Amino acid sequence: MESSTSQKLLVIQGLRAEVAGKEILKGVNLTINPGEVHALMGPNGSGKSTLSNVLSGHPRYRATKGRVVLQGRDILKLSPDERAKLGVFTAFQYPVEVTGVSLFNFLKTAYGSVKGKIDYSQFGKMVKSEAEKLRMSPNFLSRYLNEGFSGGEKKKAEILQMIVLSPKLVIMDETDSGLDIDALRVVSDGVNRARKSFNPGILLITHYFRILKYIRPDFVHVLIDGKIATEGGPQLANKLEESGYGWVRG
């Protein structure tokens, strides 16, 4: 959906992409401006996670046509770390475990890579404060990244990373998957604090309406068979909750 706002954060034009030689995205167009939340919904296999992976720079997913422009710069040929330094952040559906690297050291390394110099005293205080707001026990910061974490703890760690790095573009790939209602509220509160703090554009990929009760979208897009089949305001999510995707296909 094209916004009248002149300052565009992300512009996706005619994006086609494949994985293992199979075309998944078949011409996606989407514009996100700073501070906007765009919910991307659709049935399994429609291409939602493929879009997330292409935007993040996953090497298995190859863009074959189109452009992805972040603040005037086409990022499709950039590596994942180059995209991160430009302000792209992805919260994954299945965060990986990293043995031997504590959550705190991971955050410190990532922050230093993206932001540059660190005041270690202030950084430590900031990370601890944000972890407390996410109801994470202080000992999680010293544990190996995601190792032995529950699903909810992994997602909280992802949101902590997002808050610490304060990116320009946040891609949330089914972050609500597997969360109980309490964890969903905590994670959503973290996202809403981030919106007020550093005003990122957010692409919120989800199957379920429930997270949209806590993170209110400005726009809702429905991806069907690799294309955005319909889009609208928050009320579109309500219609999908009531009627499913059959009417969109029709």
Please tag this protein with its features.
single chain, 250 residues, Rossmann fold, six-stranded mixed β-sheet, four-stranded antiparallel β-sheet, 8 helices, globular
Which helices and strands appear, and what pairs or packs with what?
Layout lengths: L9 E10 L2 E11 L4 E5 L6 H9 L4 E10 L2 E2 L5 H7 L1 E4 L6 E5 H13 L4 H14 L10 E2 L5 H15 L3 E5 L7 H18 L2 E5 L13 E6 L2 E6 L2 H9 L2 H4 L1
Parallel strand pairs: 3-10, 3-11, 6-9, 9-10
Antiparallel strand pairs: 1-2, 1-4, 4-5, 7-8, 11-12
Helix pairs in contact: 3-5, 4-5, 5-6
Question: What does it look like?
Answer:
The structure is a single chain. The protein is α/β, with parallel strands linked by helices and 250 residues long. The chain is built from 8 helices and 12 strands. The strands form 3 sheets. It has a 6-stranded mixed β-sheet, with helices on both faces. It has a 4-stranded antiparallel β-sheet with strand order 2-1-4-5. It has a two-stranded antiparallel ribbon with strand order 7-8. Strand 1 (10-19) and strand 2 form a beta hairpin. Helix 5 (151-165) packs parallel to helix 6. The longest helix has 18 residues, at 181-198. Residues 1-6 have low confidence and may be disordered.
